[in-house]
Write a structure and sequence with these properties.
By secondary structure, this protein is an alpha+beta fold. The chain is 13% helix and 21% strand. The chain has a three-stranded antiparallel β-sheet with strand order 2-1-3, with no helix packed on it.
Length: 53
């Protein structure tokens, strides 16, 4: 598989570009840093806001 960035992976999985938070290997990844290349074994987490209370 060719190298891909966090942003491309998120788009391929159907996530929006705004309104989500991301973590890479357990560390927060700011939206402006989503051009980071993914490596084999990386763990990407996506969190979206929840309503309720």
């Amino acid at each position: 598989m060719p190298p891909t960035t966090v942003a491309i992976a998120l788009a391929n999985l159907g996530f929006p570009t705004k309104g989500i938070a991301t973590a890479l290997n357990g560390h927060f990844l700011a939206a402006h840093a989503r051009d980071r290349l993914l490596a084999e074994g990386d763990r990407l987490e996506v969190l979206s806001p929840m309503q309720g209370g």
